[in-house]
Amino acid sequence: MRVINIQGRKKTGKTTTVTNIIAELCRRGYSVGSVKGIHIEGFTMDVEGEDTGKHKKAGADPVTARCHDETNIMFRSKMDLREILRHYDTDWVVIESHVALRCPNIVTGRTAVYDGQGKDVSLEEQVNDLTICCSGVVSTEISEFQGLPVINSMTEIGRLVDLIEQETYEYNAAGEMAVESFCKEGEGELSLLETSEYIRIDAEGKTSRETDRMLTENTLDIVVDGAYGGSIPCTPQHMTELTLGWVLYEGYIRDAGDVDSITVSRDGTKADVQRRPYAKFWGKNHVPLRPVTPVEWKKEWIFALAEDFEHNLPLREQTMAAHNCRLAAIGDDGNVEILFKCEDIGRHSAIDKVIGWGLENGVDMSRCVLFTSGRISLAMAKKVVRASIPVMAGKGTISKRAVQLAERYNMTMIGYSKKDSISVFFDPKMK
User: Fold this and answer.
1) Residue 231: which CATH number?
2) Is residue 148 part of a domain?
3) Residue that terminates a domain, selected from 133, 167, 201
C-alpha cells in the first residue's frame, strides 16, 4: 500500500486535486482507497435514536450498517490515522488533509506567500520536508515554489501522478513506513575504549608511568549504491543509525523509506547503503531546507535534559573525550520523554546517530527536542532543521551563523543549558 496526503486550507483546490488524483490512479489500473479529514465539531455519520445509535449506546464497537448499496462501519472514538490504515487493503490510499502523518504530501494554496489578507492560505504556511510538490489554485499563476514543482491537477494530472508514483513508498499493514525490509546486518560488538601508557611529570620533576583509558576513534567509510560517499570519524557504536542520519543530511535520501538496506562491516570500518530504485541523489546543497513548525516549549524541558546530561555520561566519565546527544519527544501531557541518547567522539556524529535512530523508528521529529554537548555550529544546526526538529539546545555556546540559520527556519535555539538556567538565542515565539 502506498500513501499520499493532500493538505491545504479551505478553498485552495484541495478536494479537486484529491479527486483528480484518485481518478487518474484508477485509470492506471490501481485500486484506491481514501481518507477524508473532517474538521467540523460534533460531526457524525450516525443519527441519534436510530438503531445503529442504540447499538453504539449499548456498548457495541464497532457498529456496522449494511444496506443495498454500501456498508458503513462506525467506531466509538476518533482513531489514529495509522490505526485506520490497518483496515485498508488497496494499492493506494489518498488522504485529504491530515497533517500529522509522516508521509509524502502535496500542498494546495491560493497564494505562494501570505498576503496579509484574511486566513493564511499560502503555500509558505504549510510546505514541509515531506512535500513533493504544490498544487491548487496557485498553480494557475506559478510553476515552482522553493525548489518544488507547482502542478495544476486540472491540466497536468498525468505529470502530477507520475511524480506521485516516483516519490512515494510502501506503507505496511500497521500504517507505518515499510521499513520492516530495512535490513540491518553486521555491526559486531566493537571495543569503545582503549588503553595507553604515558609518563607523568610533576612540578618537581618526578616521573611515573601510568595508564589512561581512551575513547576508540574509528573511521566509517560510507558506500551508497556501490559508490563511495564519504568517511566519518566516530565511536564504533550505533553505526547503522549514524549512517542513516548522515545519508539524510548529505541528500542521498529524503526519509527512511528511501533505504532498502544498510550493512555495516564486522570491523566497523564500512557501511554499505542500498537505496530503493526510485531514490534520488539530491545533494546536501540542493535539497532546500524547510522552516520547522515552532512549538510551545517549556524551560523545564531543557532543565530536565541538562540534569539528565550531568548524570548519564558513561564514556565521558571514563575518558573525558565523548560528546553526548539526546532526542526527547514532546508528550500529550506537556512533558518530554527521552527516547534515545548516545555518546560519540564527534559532535556531528552524535547528532547523526540520534536523528538516524528517529528515522529508523518512525519518530515524529516535528514533536521533538534535540539536546547536545559542546558548541553548536552551523552544520550541526542544519542537520537538526533538515530533520524537522523544532527545538535545539546545547551545553555550550552557539555560533552566530547557527543562530542566523535558526532565525531563518523558525527553530528555537538554546545555549549554555544547565539544570537551573538557559540562554535563549532565538525563539520564533519571542521575536
Assistant:
1) 3.10.20.10
2) yes
3) 167
Asked if the structure places residue 357 within a domain, the reply is: yes
N residues, the chain: 431
Of 380, 317, 378, residue with least CA distance to 346: 380
**Cβ atoms of 368 and 358 closer than 8 Å:** yes
CA distance 92 to 6: 13
Residues 358, 414 within the same domain:
yes
d(CA 264, CA 271): 4
Structural domains counted in the chain:
3
Task: With beta carbons less than 8 A apart as the criterion, state whether 105 and 137 touch.
Answer: no
**Please, what sign has the CA dihedral across residues 315, 268, 381, 384?**
negative
In a domain, 48, yes or no: no
Residues 241-297: tens digit of each pLDDT? 999 999 998 888 888 888 888 999 888 899 999 988 777 665 544 566 789 999 999
Tally of CA atoms within 13 A in the half-sphere of 58 that contains its CB = 9
Q: What is the tens place of the pLDDT at every residue in 313-353? A: 667 667 666 789 999 999 888 889 999 998 898 889 999 99
Residue 266 shares a structural domain with residue 209 = yes
Residue 121 is part of which domain span?
2-43+81-167
- Is 290 part of a structural domain of the chain? no
What's the CATH code of the domain at 378? Answer: 3.40.140.10
List, in order, residues 6 or more apart from 327 with CB less than 8 Å away.
338, 339, 340, 341, 354, 355, 357, 358, 363, 365, 368, 369, 370
C-alpha 335/C-alpha 100 separation (Å) is: 19
Report the C-alpha dihedral over residues 316, 320, 321, 325, rounded to 10 degrees.
Answer: 40
